[in-house]
Model the fold of this input.
Amino acid sequence: MSSTAFAASATLLRLNCEAKHQARLFPDFLRKGRSKISLFARSQRKRSQFVIASSASGGNGGVAEISEAETAPQFYSWPDEKKPRVCILGGGFGGLYTALRLESLVWPDDKKPQVLLVDQSEHFVFKPMLYELLSGEVDAWEIAPRFSDLLANTNVLFIQDKVKLLYPSDHLGMNGPAKSSVGGSVLLESGLLIEYDWLVLSLGSEAKLDVVPGALEFALPFSTLEDARKVDLRLRELERRKFSKESLIRVVVVGCGYAGVELAATVSERLQDRGVVQAINVENTICPNAPPGNREAATKVLSSRKVELLLGYFVRCIRQVVDTEASEKPTKSIGVEHDYGKYILELQPTEKGLQSQTIEADLVLWTVGSKSLLPHLEPGNRRSALPLNGRGQAETDETLRVNGHPRIFAVGDSSASRESNGRLLPATAQVAFQQADFAGWNLWAAINNRPLLPFRFQNLGEMITLGRNDAAISPSFIEGLTLDGPLGHTARKLAYLIRLPTDEHRLKVGISWLTKSAIDSVASLQSTLTKGK
Done:
């Protein structure tokens, strides 16, 4: 076994003493969940992988694999028993940037916390730029780097796993007869149990496809790296099969918020005259909450690319009509599980004067609705339950602490954070960025017994991509100003380049984008000179 694996095993395993310690701290958990604890034994027969990225493991993100020949872990053992333990669930904008914020702060030697980041994926995904994967403008490594690479020069630990159960104990208080000396524990799918002092919830959300019959079976969402790859593969298959003007590719985008409009603009630009894109929205306008300048720029681009807008409609159901000719010669494409065939969407009007419609599509893209990924709590112990709103988000106070749980913070899609007027903040990257800064600072303040700061969202403006060389930006600090076209596109890319997670990654991506821009400029110049001859 390598020295890295030995170090990881030593860090992860202290079974006997930890078992006694957990029995003392969480008697209800061990008594009520005895059937669940048996999964620890079953996990020994399965292959588990734990990725630990930190400067402590050689400075280059060590990877420790625990095979079935080795003892599978039960209780996670932190490297230092004396220092505070911060566990962050979810490596999206809120989770990863909170971890990096904690790393950047100045700490007293004995107070600097150990930070553990848990995510089910090995990649961080810069979601606002997923559309550029479809257009070919960016490479996957630029917007979806591995956590092990991002955290290689930090002290942040990383485990790739899925959260199964959350058992907080901070509702018991830290003093008194029913006191708890820790914040709680987290159970992962692999069977690993992590005890923490402080917890950050940043599990994000997933597409809500179960509200319309047929959507779950036949529509593709677009919110993760895997989603983007599936859509790209499906488009490639359609482009191979339908390469003539007599056989157009028909794509339907459900939803005309920012995500739906960006997707419709990107796909229509990619297909050009080889396809037809239709976009459906319940509202009678696109991007109803967007600044007028962004909405006008988007409407103009969609019109120029002949995107058909079906406004004032909702999808009643989706069904499939199998294309027998195409299904006889299937193409083996990894990640695309949908059968060949056409899809029929039945549309119901939301306003008087409109007629019901039935439309046909080769590909249905779903951008409407989302549901929280917060874990379920231990059944029967309602005292420790997190206060969740109707969307499954945790209700928080103004410092981003979960109500009734002083040692749990919630950010991003996991947080039901509100503005001063009581309105729920939108689940956007901009909100998550800012919450991560405050969560990191407030964790510092809580650990050092300092006052916590109330979170105040500062709207810096809104951006929307509309194609390879087109975007719109409406900054909030200049009322009425909208940058669109190539200028908006450049400004948007620079803004997102600045917001990439680490200095090292920003430098690599910046060089890559600059090189691509130079190559495109030379190619454009050569094309112009050739046409002029």
Summary: The CA atoms of residues 150 and 312 lie 44 Å apart. The radius of gyration is 25 Å. Residues 503-532 form the longest helix (30 residues). The chain has a mean pLDDT of 83.
